[in-house]
Design goal:
Elements lengths: L1 E6 L5 H10 L4 E6 L11 H17 L2 E6 L2 H14 L5 E3 H12 L4 E6 L1 H6 L1 H9 L4 E6 L1 H8 L6 H11 L11 E4 L8 H8 L4 E4 H15 L10 E6 L3 H11 L9 E3 L3
Parallel strand pairs: 1-2, 1-3, 2-9, 3-4, 5-6, 5-7, 7-8, 9-10
Helix pairs in contact: 1-10, 2-3, 4-6, 4-10, 7-8, 8-9
Bound molecules: D-glutamic acid.
Length: 266
């Protein structure tokens, strides 16, 4: 059976790429809810409804694990997803990224860059301080960075200017943070621009890498991992599949050149 993954758009392909690298024998089914992007500015109720529809669609195709490759959906909808699909392992990027940040920061001064919705939920500070009570966690909502990443402009002067205005002050002067959580799955696409702003020293926590590690551990623990063979990736979009295919091929060359995208109506 496949691993089901979803996000609002191409951002969650950072998670699919990390899963492909970590678990090359697995077959992944990725759903990008392009008809309803962005999730980050929507109300929690709407995000929960969208997340349940995406999960129901993937579960109907038969999956052995669900990876919520969207921080906004993880922040708002994880309990609802677990309740709707009892018995299905469900992993969220917020939990994985928060645990990685709690371990990675030396000073405990941690900045979370995320969508408005993820910041409003307070899930990152709550999860990080539950694991590391002395951590000082601050959040920055960076909604424009989602659009920049979707446009394929992650390494552009525009991306750098936006990253500077959102993040520069948190990593300068006395009491500067030493850890930045990329708390939106679109943001790993902006790492070169972000690095030019914050410099080489702060630790960057990529929730995609963190959740791929958790997925590998959980599959092994439950005896669900595929042994050997070449895995695969099936892509589904809820709007403009050709545009989605083009973006995926351009932003994620490692996923292969002959990507096909199916259109789905949730
Ligand atoms: N990539 C998503 C996240 O991690 C959502 C971005 C959006 O749709 O606003 O939150």
């Amino acid at each position: 059976m496949n691993i089901g993954i979803f996000d609002s758009g191409v951002g969650g392909l950072t998670v699919a790429s990390a899963l492909r690298r970590r678990l090359p024998a697995e077959t992944l089914t990725y759903l990008g809810d392009t008809a309803r992007l962005p999730y980050g500015t929507k109300s929690p109720e709407t995000v929960v409804r969208y997340a349940l529809q995406a999960a129901d669609y993937l579960a109907a195709g038969g999956i052995k694990m669900l990876v919520v490759a969207c921080n906004t959906a993880s922040a708002h909808a994880l309990p609802a997803l677990v309740a709707r699909h009892p018995g299905l392992p469900v992993l969220g990027v917020v939990e994985a990224g928060a645990a990685a940040a709690a371990r990675a920061s030396a000073s405990g001064r941690i900045v979370v860059a995320a969508t408005e919705g993820t910041c409003r939920s307070g899930r990152f500070p709550a999860t990080i301080t539950a694991l590391r009570p002395t951590a000082e966690v601050s959040q920055v909502a960076c909604p424009l960075l989602v659009a920049v990443a979707e446009e394929g402009l992650g390494d552009s002067p525009i991306a750098e200017a936006m990253a500077r205005s959102y993040l520069a002050d948190r990593f300068a002067g006395h009491g500067a943070a030493d850890c930045l959580v990329l708390g939106c799955t679109h943001f790993p696409l902006l790492v070169p621009a972000i690095r030019r702003v914050i410099g080489p020293r702060p630790v960057l926590v990529d929730c995609a890498e963190a959740v791929a590690e958790q997925a590998a551990a959980l599959l092994a623990e439950r005896g669900l991992a595929r042994q050997g063979g070449a895995g695969g990736l099936a892509l589904i979009a809820t709007d403009s599949p050709e545009r989605f295919r083009r973006m995926a091929a351009r932003l994620f060359p490692g996923l292969g050149s002959n990507l096909a995208v199916t259109l789905a109506d949730l």
